[in-house]
Structure to design on (255 residues):
């Protein structure tokens, strides 16, 4: 894993959850390239330290299950103990519900776990990061999904969690403004696989062509939007949802 050299540190500190792979890792790498100190958190205690080491001296890994309030409290305390400040929170950790469990077979414990990670986790992080974000007029970005707007069959837990996260975003924006801005990014189809996987099993031309933008999205597409929302250039933007999906949610499709 080689993510290139980081720029000199700009003094700002960001916490990115679910950052051991995929979109979260892409966001962390992008912010580091802009000079941020990034704390990557994840439940993957094996891969997390490896990617943080590959990202360089501006990256630090901490293990955290965002659905566990005690771990959130401890993690935030670790960030503050290490750096003395927090300027940005990116809530990306999620269970993506890959199994498409039929409603009749949906286990309540699984439903509760998905909502605990995908929805309660961002609430807990906002709750415990707010005093420190407020001190530096910081920002929060929640990673929702186009599944908050449209669904495949048998994805109730994931769709409900992401729809709730969009609503939580504008609720937090009203509660925490004007000191803290809160926005959501809703990715569509993003090829978030490791580079080796993308090389071994490339997407088809049909996969790309169905998008009005002409291609499937990349983690960099999402990371660029997140970085902008955390920047001073977005100082007048709060309570909003930004869809990054190559236009698919605007495409009328008939079979």
């Amino acid at each position: 894993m080689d993510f290139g050299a980081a720029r000199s540190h700009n003094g700002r500190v960001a916490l990115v959850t679910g950052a051991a792979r995929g979109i979260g890792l892409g966001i962390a790498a992008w912010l580091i390239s802009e000079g941020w100190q990034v704390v990557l958190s994840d439940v993957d205690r094996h891969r997390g330290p490896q990617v943080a080491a590959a990202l360089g001296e501006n990256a630090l890994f901490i293990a955290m299950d965002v659905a566990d309030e005690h771990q959130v409290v401890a993690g935030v305390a670790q960030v503050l103990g290490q750096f003395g400040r927090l300027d940005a929170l990116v809530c990306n950790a999620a269970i993506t519900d890959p199994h498409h469990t039929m409603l009749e077979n949906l286990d309540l414990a699984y439903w509760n776990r998905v909502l605990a990670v995908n929805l309660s986790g961002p609430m807990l992080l906002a709750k415990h990061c707010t005093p420190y974000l407020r001190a530096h007029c910081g920002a929060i970005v929640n990673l929702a999904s186009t599944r908050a707007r449209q669904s495949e069959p048998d994805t109730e837990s994931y769709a409900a969690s992401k729809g709730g996260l969009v609503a939580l975003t504008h609720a937090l924006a009203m509660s925490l403004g004007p000191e803290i801005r809160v926005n959501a990014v809703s990715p569509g189809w993003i090829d978030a696989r490791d580079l080796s996987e993308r090389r071994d099993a490339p997407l088809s031309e049909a996969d790309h062509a169905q998008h009005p933008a002409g291609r499937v999205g990349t983690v960099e597409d999402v990371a660029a939007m997140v970085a902008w929302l955390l920047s001073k250039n977005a100082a007048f933007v709060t309570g909003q949802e930004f869809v990054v999906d190559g236009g698919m949610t605007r495409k009328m499709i008939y079979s």
About this structure: Residues 13-250 form a domain with the Rossmann fold fold (CATH 3.40.50.720).
